[in-house]
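Example A, followed by Example B.
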Amino acid sequence: MAFRSEDDAIGNKENYQDLNLTNYPNFLDSRSETPNNPYRYNKNMRGFVNVGEGEALPDYVMAEYINAALDGVMALERAIGATPMVPSGTSLATIPSVIESSTVTARISRIENGLFDERYGGAGWSYTPGRPTLSSHEHTGLTGQPGKINLVNEIEGVLQKNNVDLTSATGITGADLSVSKTNVSLISDALADSLSKSAGGTINGAVIFKKALRSRTGGDWRADELPILNGTSLLVDTAASAGKALVSGSNTSATQLFSLSATERTDLLFGKYICIVRLKASTMVSGYGLRFQLGNATQDILGGGLPIGNYKQFYFVFEQNETTKPAHLTFTKLATGAALSVSIDSIIIEPIHPAVLDR
């Protein structure tokens, strides 16, 4: 049996270890003994002198020369791969001959120059299940398909408005989206059922106001909506309507409990009003304990007339007109001989007959 001559085999190969007489594809073979990367010297391809002979003798063809050339060819074949001129997925049995237009150079040129053939969604393309293309593929994560897109890590920027079609039957609108994950009402229904700030609207059902209501003919304030003036505190009180009360310090000095702002005072239309204050006191004291200054009226309440322990509503009538408009609308705990603390739960101001007149 004849054996291949490998006297000058090249060691330390990383790829194609059976092709011992070529540096390819790790390096390009070179006849120079001092080549630079990516070239490496290959003595089997020097070709200008026989191994061990003088230069005057003829240049005989050595076995190493042929084997090195064949190893290089086979390494090149493996690097390029089988059927490099045939489109991927095409059966060799259906190709009678390989035409020149299907060279590797031609195929690379189509990609680099944008002349996409049918495999990339160009002219003549039609969808074939299990054969995705650049222009039509699915991110299903299944075998043979690209992985699913991670909307947290792989998406950035703002969705352009022209990508959201709100006019077509398939576009996303408020009729497709819920108000929130806890409110399943559709946005379109919620907007259709809402009041407009500018146009108003009609309310057909019962209305429950859990916060304050303000208008030019009155208003209401819960304790947690009242201004905290010097000497007062907002404290927890389960008996109060908001669960909190505006409380004065327990002392003998005078303390202002509430003052309607200048804007809120002057915004009231002219006419007669009633002010309803829900309050309680910590203890009974002699003399006057509370003073109300409402429009054109000032009224002092005896300390013995204040409710102890439980809230009670007090009613005061006053008039708003050109003369009284700038007047104070305040509640004050008066100076007393014994320590007194007053708690306010809520305040309501509303018109009283005769009707409120415009300015």
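Example B, a separate protein, is given below in the same form.
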Amino acid sequence: MGTPSNLVRKQYLISQRNIQKLEALASTQGTSAAEIVRQAIDAYDPHGAGDLDAPELMELVHQTLEDAITTTRRANRKVSKVLKVLDEAPT
């Protein structure tokens, strides 16, 4: 964490959902919400994949696609169940 002399106060608008998540993370980690925000900013690297070599990048893509397929299949099963219930409902 920075010392008070090198910290700058800024104000940002965030959603109520983000506030709840931030407070929960801070509570779980036993730190302040401000520290969680600082850690998130330090960890954020939108170009991080550029530092990966080809095999690492392919593994990342593979895992991301597997996760997306699993999530999509799960969602499709839920939608199918809801549609079945709706089809069986009296009109």
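On Example B: The chain has three helices and no strands.
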